[in-house]
Amino acid sequence: MITTLQDILKEYKSDMERMESRIHESLGTDVPLIRQVSKYILGAGGKRFRPLLHLLSARLCGYREHSGEYVLGSVVEYIHTASLLHDDVIDEAKVRRGRSSANTIWGNQASI
Length: 112
Hints:
Number of strands: 2
Largest sheet: 2 strands, antiparallel
Low-confidence stretches: none
Number of helices: 7
Distance between the termini: 42 Å
CATH superfamily: Farnesyl Diphosphate Synthase
């Protein structure tokens, strides 16, 4: 029986690897600053708990191996990441996840 977050992550490891790939693939842009900031922020890691919840919800509803759940899961992660960027600007945070915050490196305008 799956009882902990680690158990769930282990059970859905390949799905989450696919989700992680989708998150990074969707960042394709010709704007160097956007690419640089996005890569830095998403490269900081995190549990990706929200995309996992989305994926588990999709599975509970019977969705299996469709690309849609990965697309929407990545959108959920982008919204969460954007809220963290905004929070850092509002709070004038200097650090996020043990690294310099994006607004410290690139300024508030680039972060938002």
